[in-house]
Each structure stands twice: as structure tokens, then as C-alpha cells.
Write a structure and sequence with these properties.
The structure holds two protein chains of two kinds. By secondary structure, chain A is α+β, with helices and mostly antiparallel strands. Chain A is built from seven helices and 32 strands. The chains are: A alpha+beta, B alpha+beta.
Amino acid sequence: MIFMRQILLLSIFLVQGSISSISIFGQNIRVEASFSPSSISSTSRSTYKVVVHGTQQNPQGTIPKVSGLRISNNPQSLRSANFINGVPSVRVELSFQTMPEGIGTYTVPSWNINIDGKVLRVPQASLQVLAPSQSEKKAQQDLRQAAFLEFPLEKPYLFEGETMLAPLTLFIWDRLPVNRIENAPIKIGASFSSNKLGKWSEEKRNVGRNGKLYSTFTWPVAITAAMAGTKQIGFEVNLRVRVNTRRNSPFSSPFFNDPFFGFGREESLTVSLPTKEIEIKPLPISNRPSNFSGAIGSFQAIASVDTKQVEIGDPVRFNFSIEGKGNFAAIPAPNLESSAEFKIGPPGFLFQGDEKSKFEGKQSFEYIITPIKSGSITLPSINFAYFDPNLEKYNTISTQKINLQVQHGERWSKPESKIVFEKDNSLNGKEAETMIDLFQTASDPGQWYNSLKNDGLEKKTWFWMIQTLPLTGAISLVFFGWKKRNKIADDFRLKKATLSRKLKESVENRDAIGFFRAFKDLIRLQISLRDRTINTFAFSTRELVQFIKKQNTEKSLVGEIEEMLSLGEDLEFGDTNSKELDFKKLQTKGSEILKKL
Amino acid sequence: MTKHFRYFLFLVACSISLLFASANSKEQLFYDAVRLEATGDLENAIINYEKASLHQSSANLHANLANLYYKTNDYGRSILNFRKAILLDKKNRDFRYNLEFVCKTAQVEASSLQKIGYFTRNSSNFWKAILAIFFWSGMLVLSFVFFRGFHRKTFFLMFTGWITGNIALSIFLHFSIKSEDLTEREIIAIESFSNGDQNSTNIINLRRFAASSSSANSSVKAGEILVLEKSKKGEISGHTSENKQEWLLVSTPDRRKKGWVLKEEVGWIIAN
């Protein structure tokens, strides 16, 4: 990643250089590399310089990686042009900040750079890192001791799920110019959960430590182990400090031995707690009570009600409290079920103690119990199981059963009302048990409604969606019906034209049988218009005449039709001779009948 | 996973968390009210129930509130909240008995115009559904007759019957809507606290004019049912006086008493 950045930056310089470069032809290009200073102490920094003479083009290349030496990926570039004895001289200089990680000699090996397509060799350069001097060591130690965190634990191990309270203390040396603490300590490591840290809870001045005077700031931290194994935890806090603005300070330490101490710029200083390793033991499986729900610590439990004499429907507060030290934040409310004698609402939670750490105090679970039967009601005892990490065993606390005396409240006793049901004759005049007790308080809200007003059906999307189904059906039926009708009409016209042509041809050819058959079919066709549900082509002559009669047709017309049809049948099946027929007359008569029909 | 999709998921998560936050709030108020009632702090219990009712309504919430108003001798508001509770849970007999008891104590009539359920014969929804079923059934039958090519006479007879049925059902629907409108205009006279910490009065004056100085036509007891009058335009008759007091023209269901009341002197059962 760093190399990629270096390549990118060098490329940017190359582009910049190409814009503003002055090409000096005739001057030899040579490359120099060195550290400045070439010898430093382990707490100081040096600059790795690459100077290219004879050009102002920015070089392109990749600096080799040197183990133990951190090289900045943000080089500074400097271009210069001079006339020395009338000869122009140009150069480009790249400076990389370096920081050694230990004592020794670090050598940047020879590497290649590319300028204007020419490959040039950067010579190797060495940096000697020496041990810090006595005063430097002192300054370094001072820096380490200037601000630090302490987190002492009571014991070196925890049980899985156990909560331990320990003070996290920030020590700030009085000489350290701290403007403010930027943030509350932040936990490092996911194996533990901790309470949210806000402002420190304790502040002390002039606390002696390491021969120095400190101000201390303490946060109570309750850490809870999340999983078994050896896990690490750390904390970090940021301080806002004023630092020396002078770059030529005798030491790299920005804070000390500076005559302008206190007048510099502000910087953030991160103070870290050295990582602590804590062993987390799993909870023992043997002898674990079935109702164990994760409570770990040392507790006492008590159950109570605010009153033992109540009326039906009156809410009673049932309080179950756990007091002691432990993981209160992880303890769920005991599960209490409603019964035939009482209804029970969801519990209310109340913690008395340090709300932030929730390690030591009293956790109360308040249930609202609504008696629904009169008489003596017994509230069941609660069994609370927990694991004691000091004794390393499980304990169970059982609370005492509580008796409530429930009286009848106000009752509705209007005798003629429907309210009194099923009078029990066996009571012999005593008050019926089925009478209603009034004004009972419901312990749960039941179903919630947005409005008391019923929404109209027309506002429901489904109402309109459903209606699209019959609409589609109706449109489809009308469409196909219309299409079908058009087809029938076309068929009718075609059939009529064919039969009329046949009738005409029969007259021309003097084909009596053909003429009467065509006439009969034309009658059937015409009649079919009156009732489309009946197939008139299946009718015999007699049935056809009867059907015409039923259709309120004129008697004279029926007679004429009957006469024509009989003549046709006689010709076809009888002895009548067709030679005697006047076809022209018959055609005129047939046309008139069909017209009238 | 695209950026847009993540943004969409974020929005969904925010909406869900907001919904849950709202739900917790009203439920928390309810349970707090029950606890306060258990401690005997009826005044703050009422405040909590009223706050919860601003979020959403539930039958038990209004019933508990009505119980508390009854215990604090505020019969008007007790009756109002029992009516709301019954509206949400019509089958709950306890609410009805409680309402009857409070009405008897307050010496007011217990009968109500509100006999309309969501889908009872009196409800407009019932007639809307019947009309829709009849309309579409008829439409389908007529379309089928047209498709099959039945005789014109048959088609005409069926069409006439269909039109007549639709008109008849529309008339029923019209009357059911009118009946619902009357129900929605039903309000309850409640005790007035207009004079700060002064004692409330359980008599509500029906004034001749929309002004505090106006003499009263007649009066009703707290807890009695009133009906909001409508203007010719179909809007509720109201008036805002110069001192920003809102007045409503009301009458008793039998229309024997009529007059102006302050908006604070009545409680809306269904909507405000």
C-alpha cells in the first residue's frame, strides 16, 4: 500500500515537473543520495535526500523497503537553478522523513529512477542510529511517565459473564501542558464489555508517583467477560496538549526543555494502557440450577407487596429486589405468570446504586398484580439462582409466599338487568357469585388502534382490488359476446345470400325441389333471428309452422307459409308434377312471405 | 451490496426503530399509569393515560381512564371514556356494566346512538359491500346474457331489475351514511375546568348565543349525550369568539334542548 502511494506521489511530481520544468540540454544528469544527519540517536529522526543534478524533471521510481526504518511516503521536493561561473546548473531534490525503530546501521540499497525515459541509478545511503544519551533517556522516560493509565484488577481471572469493578486512573504529570482531556477512555478489545464511560468520577491533585507530582482522574469501570479463554483488554484516552513549535529543539520530545514552553501549537496525545491479559474461566456445568439465568455475583433477594388487603381489580405492587454486587445489567426479570386468581403485567425495572457501572446496588423488579377473584390469594415464591464467583459455586434464594386478602369491590346489583347471570339456586338467597365486580384495572393495554373512527370500505385498497375481478370478467364477456354477434351476423348474411342465389337459380332451371328447399331454409334462417337459443334448422315442417304460430305471426302469413311448405313437400315426396308450376309467381310469393316474416 | 441498497436498508432500520420507539413510549406511559394508580397517585395516573391516548387508543386504556375519572367523581369524562372503550371493544360486558353504573350514579341516560359496528346492518360498510356485490353480480349476469345472445326481452327485464336493485341499495346506503354521520357527531357533556383551579361544575349550560355572557336556554348534566348541529352547508355549526373561545351549537338527541357550549365543555367520542 505504501509503495503504491509512493509511486502515485512520484507520478504527481512528474506531472507537475513536466508543466514547470526547464530543460537544460548539454548538462550531465547525475544522482546523489544521503541521510541528513547521517548519524542520530534512536529517539531522533533523519531525512533521506535524493538529489538529481542536471534536470528539473521529477524522477519516477520506488524506494526499496528497509527493515527497521520507517520512510515517509510524503516527500518534499525542491527545484533550484543557478549559474556557476556562467554555466547553468539545475537540480531537483526529494526529501523523505525517516524514523528508525532501533539502534544500528540502516542502509537504503541502490535503486533505479526514471527521468525522461532514462533509467538512472540512485546510490546506496546509510544511516547510523546510536543509543540515546543519558539526558535523552531521561527525556524519553519523562515522556513515558508524563501521562499514563492504570487499571488494577482485584484478581487475575474472571468467570464467563462475571462483572468486575476496577478503577481506571489517568495520571497526568503536572509539567505536561494539558489543555483538556479530549474524550473518555475507550476500551480496546472485544472480549469484554464495559459500562459507558463519561466524565471522570474522581479527581485528585499532587499525587506522588515515580518522583513526580501528578493530577489523577479516575473512572469506575465494570468489565464483563464475554467468552472463555485468555483475553486482552486495553484502554486509550486522548489529551489535548500544547507542543513546542521550534523545530530545532534539542530532543524529539515536543514538550520539554523548551524556553517557549506553553506558547506552542495544540496537538492530540494518545495515552494507552499497556494491554492486559486476563484469564476468563467458563462457568461450571455441574450443579447448575435449571432456573439459572446468568446472574453472577453475591446477592440477597427479597419479595414484598405494598398492601395485603385489596379489592378485586385494584392493582397491587409486587416488588422483587436483589441486592449485592454482581452483573446487574445482565440479570433478567423473573418470569411470573398470570393465574386464574390474578393477572400480572410486565415488570418495571428500578436500579438503586451506581447507574453507570451497575455493579453494586439494588435491582428491583416491580410487577403490577390485579386480583380477579375474591378471597385469599397466594402469590408464588420466586427462586433466584446465581453463581458466586468468590465461593465458585451456585446458590439459590427462595422468597417467601405472600398471601393477599381480596375483598369484593363495588358490584352491579340491578336485579332486572341482564347483568346477573345464572342465579345459583343452591346459594339459597345468598349473593350470587356470578355478579359483576366493577371498575377493574386492566394491567395491559391490549390492542392499539390509530383511530376510534372506522375507516370506510372505500378507503381500503383491497376493496377496489377485488372489484377489478368482476370488472375484468364483465368486460371480457361483453367483448367476446360482441365479437360472437358480429360473426353470427356475418354468417347469417352469407347464408341468406347463398340461399337467395339458390332460389333464383332454381327458378331459372325450373328445379322445383331445389326452389322449395331453398325457400324452407330461408324461412328457418329468418325465424332463427327471433330466438337465437333455438336451432330452427333442426325443425321439421310441422315444428317450423308451429314455432311461427307461437311467435304471434299473422294468421294469413302463417297460412301462406304453410301452403308453400306443403307444396314443396308434396313435390318432393308426393305425386305433384312440377311442370304445372308457375315459378315466376312462386318466386314473387316467396319473396313477399320472407319480407313479411 | 450497492451504496443505494445500503442507504435504503439504513432508512428502513431508522423507520423501524422510530416505530418501536413510538410503541415503547405509549406502552411505557400505560404501565407507568398503572403503577401510579397502584400507589394511589390517581392524578398523575390520569395524566399518563391521557398522554398515552394521544399516541394511540386501546379499549383497556380508555376503560382504565374511565375508572380513574369515576374514582375522582368526574362522571362526564368517565362516561366519555367508557363509551370510547366500548367503541373499541363492543363485546366487553364489563365496560357496559361499568358505564351503566356510572350513568346511574351521575343520574344520566345510559342509552347511546352508537349501535353501529364496523359491519353491522346499520353500518355504511355493510351496505357498501352489499351494493358492490349486487352491482358486480348483476353486471356479470348481464354480460353473460349478452355473450350467450339471450332474447332481448329477457335481457331488458334483467337490466331493469338490476337498475332497480342498485337504486334501492343506494338508498339504504345513503341512510346508513346519514346514521353514521349522526353517530360521529355524538358528544358527551363534561365538567368544565375553565376557571383554573376552581371547582368544576357538573351542569353544562346550553347558551342562547355563542358568548359567556349569554343566558342559557337550558342545561344538561355532565355525562349526557349531545349531538353537534350541522349548518345548511353540511358543516358543524361553530363559532370562534373575539377572545378566541371556540363555541359549538349542540342539541340533545331528542332535540328538546339546544344551545351553544364551549369546546372544552364537551368530549368527542369518535373524532375531534
